[in-house]
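In response to reviewer comment 3 from the previous cycle, which asked for concrete evidence that the modeling workflow produces usable outputs, we include below a single protein chain processed end to end. The sequence was submitted unchanged, and the resulting structure tokens are shown without manual editing.
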Amino acid sequence: MEVVIAQDIRSLGREAAEAGAALIRSAIARRGAAAVIVATGTSQFQTLAALVEEEEIDWSSVTGFHLDEYIGLPMDHPASFRGYLKQRFVDRIPLAAFHYIDGEAADPIAECHRLGRLIEGHEIDVAFVGIGENGHLAFNDPPADFQTDEPYLVVELDEACRRQQLGEGWFDNLESVPRQAISMSVRQILKSNAIICSVPDERKAAAAVAAVEGPVTPQVPASILQEHSQTRIYLDPPAASRLERRQPDQTA
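The workflow returned the following structure tokens.
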């Protein structure tokens, strides 16, 4: 794991996007195609905005996979991750394909199996992810399942996760935040050749220090990233405020 503390949130997004873009270009140059995993949420605003502006990427050679999605939320809901990705990523670049999670599928388990069959044939070059306030990775809330080999899971969202979604302004009240989601599993995320993790904001500081400097434990799902040698975590100064190393551009 490498930790990069950017000068500010804009620098965080730009540096994370530049690193991810280089990995995508390298994959295309090596085998003529690339595959990426894309996350959502406020933590990804700056990174995705910068990524779609990166030059000299043959996006028509890139296949994208959706990281997680609420169960039962329509695509036109303001909190829909499908809607988020369509607006901020998919509609802005000419991808070869993008595989959304259908949170409205009649059978969520069958939807997990469908997604699993799709992703099993792809080498994932880079996963763009974030960390939740409760330390979650995708929607794998604590205690996360570090063992399952299933690529996608139906998961229960804990109250801390649901309160984060409310606090970020995606919902009007806690009761309207879904209690279940479909999430890519921890082990599937770790199969990615490289992981770019964007973590801005002081409210993520406790989760960031637990993930980066604490023990690897299912109680802090993102701590598993310590075991992935090609993970790079980008923090802005507020998010890095509890780390032992706090100077911008310092790595660990």
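Residues 246-252 have pLDDT under 50 and may be disordered. We consider this sufficient to address the reviewer's concern, and the full set will be provided in the supplementary archive.
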